[in-house]
Amino acid sequence: MSAPLLHGCVLGAGPTGALAALALADAGWHVSLRDPLPAEQLVERSRAYAFTHSSRELLQRLGLWDDLAAVLVPFRQLQLRDFGSGEGCQFETEDLGLPRATANAVGWIAQHRPLMEALLVRLEAHPAVRLQLGPDPAGESRVGPEPAADLVVAADGPASPSRTALAIGQWQLAYRQSCLTAQVQLRGGKDDEAWELLRPEGPFAVLPLGDGRVQVVWSAPASRCRQLERLPATAFLDHLAAVLPDRLQPDVLLDHPRSFPVALQLARRLHRGRTLLVGESAHRCHPVGGQGLNLCWRDVAVLHGLAGRVARGQLAPDRIGAAYSWRRWPDLLLTLLVTDLLVRLFSNRHPLVVPLRRLALAALARWAPLRRLLLTAMTFGPCRGRTASPQ
Asked: What is the pTM of this model?
């Protein structure tokens, strides 16, 4: 007797929704991926993402790593600098504690367009995936789920219409900071080196894109971000040069700086009925440490394992929501707590806090086991064993 055909519907075709559709298909489900935006608009976004080894492991399980590796820029060093205390340390591949053949990078950077183009190519080629992107000529909605779906995966962003329709509330904390992103041609940097600069006005990341190009992720008070966004290119580069380490010199602004508000958000529940909240429909955190997309893709890793168990008859379809929530809550709560504490601790000029930061960073610089502990938590999440894909 053949197993019943399982049908999943994924709402939202951004990086997380696209990967969730491929994960369900890999687990043996038939999948519809729906988004009101056409493919050409889905790929149009000027931003970059940091990937850790937790995302690499998922991509390898899905057979996507070799395809996506071509659009990823590896970095083998991560420079951490606290401008308030004057201390810093350097993380290298040896601090991961992984086998040498695996630990060939601390992490990777990918730009949105090539990443989405590669994911869409795989989706279009997969026989178990049906893409429903853009306005439908027959007037069919691309927002709600299909009535016949056994599972609905809501990956429709922080303003999730699915979460609203399900009357799922959320906890929310708006930071006083905003975040500004821009791509810049840089002198003095290395193509395999990323930076996390902890400044009193907010964290500042420099992400390598190859050939001397970087994306800066600049956290600062909202008024300052708006001011920077309006500056002419030469004035913006002057302001940028003033906050970068001395050996990094910006030469050319490659796109128009864009700022956006930063908030901590967490849905009060991760499922209702047959619908799961995945990615930013369920949670958002401050971009410090590059945790955002990796946290979203750890959602997908758990979804992938549970969907496989359902397909093998080891888990009833109506139990997937409770199992998903039980596995995801610890990682989400701890990651959001850690990123929030980092922002509060390193954006704080209190005279008692700065010496503590100096001691902590000096210990990191001198003690390899402590670097390994911190980098492992930031790479795989604070609950690696509990959030690994259940097989």
From this structure: 0.93
